[in-house]
tRNA uridine(34) hydroxylase
Amino acid sequence: MQLYNTLSAEERARLIDEAGKERLTLSFYAYAKIEDPKKFRDDLFIAWNALDALGRIYVAHEGINAQMSVPADQFEAFRDTLEVYDFMKGIRLNVAVEQDNHSFLKLTIKVRNKIVADGLNDETFDVTNKGVHLKAKEFNDLLEDPNTIVVDFRNHYESEVGHFEGAITPDVENFRESLPIINEQLQDFKEDKNLLMYCTGGIRCEKASAYFKHQGFKNVFQLEGGIIEYTRQIKEEGIASKFIGKNFVFDHRLGERITDDIIAQCHQCGKPCDNHTNCANDACHLLFIQCDECKAAMENCCSTECQGIIHLPWEEQVELRKGLQVGNKVFRKGKSEALKFKKSGDLPDKPLAKAEIKDIRQKIKVKKTLVGKAEHYFSKSKIAQFLIENNELSVGDKVLISGPTTGDQEVTVSQIFVNGSFSDVAKPGEQITFELPFRVRLSDKLYKILDTENA
Ligand SMILES: [Zn+2]
Ligand SMILES: [Zn+2]
């Protein structure tokens, strides 16, 4: 029986594109008593692998916490795999606002001590004595109450790009750190204030609310299903959002826009921006906010030091990394001296700018001619492969790469490889590759730009 992934992320991305089927990004969690987490894990792997469900899942004696991508046409079959367990009957699945077929490219189910690292000793308090669960409308109403203190139980890099108006946003790297800090800060308000708590999907508040009640807080409330479920409800019921900005998420999208307010700044130039990225130097991999101009100028790096490193031959980079921890195991999230505009702790409620709403009709008119289509993207080496179908493409040409997920991206072609060797020009029928800083999808079209004029 196959219990682990056999495909690489690149192979999986290619299969997903080729299948051309819509996928749903979703998350759920449940606290329950699991006798044999290892067997539970294996059973889930077999059931989900058969449905082509992907994601990052943690199971423990205390329950399950899952972030997943499921083929849309298998959604009901997927739900059936949950319903076989009594504790997941009728479970709420948080479906993401923005969909991306590549949100997860592997099925990883890990057995852990806990489903959320909270640092709490569960034996010392009653974990089932939770706070009152609130729906979006009730949460908004309570926010209006002057007697309410609202606390964001997420980390600094999450609250920086979006949070509820007036929320306390602890300057913490992880959930475990935030509990004692908040407890200390709110010592004098245990009796008379409403403690209103929220997180991304609700899971962190499930136990934190019980912990705070145990600490003596009398009126403890939590946002049911977190920001994800809040967003769904305000859209469905036409309620005004009291959450401003973006909801940070842990798949490769790194954020879902909730309102068009931009409340964060590019960490390098200070311009209003809320797009997270990871430093292109694999040995650094720092998570930080970078605007498009800085991305181009810095080649997606967090510092000139990292920019220097990515230009070294690969063997030298590997040599430099020896003795260091593997890049993405280093949890330095957005904390670096090189980033002058990083903000955490007390965050502003005032938007710095409005995000552009993508509307095709308002776009700049581009005179262009179709040249070919995308065939593949090699993520590791950042190389895109296209098939030239019409016209010619020459080095120095400005091109537009366009597709539903990719959007419209303009680049100048500085090098072309035809059948693996340099070429100044590519002709119809030829398969070409060149370096591209972003992923392209199978359906993307390649245009040559002839002329640009503002509409
Ligand atoms: Zn910038
Ligand atoms: Zn870096």
In short: The mean pLDDT is 87. Residues 266, 268-269, 271, 291, 293-294 surround zinc ion (ligand 1) (CB under 6 Å). The two ends are 59 Å apart (CA to CA). DSSP finds eleven helices and 26 strands in the chain.
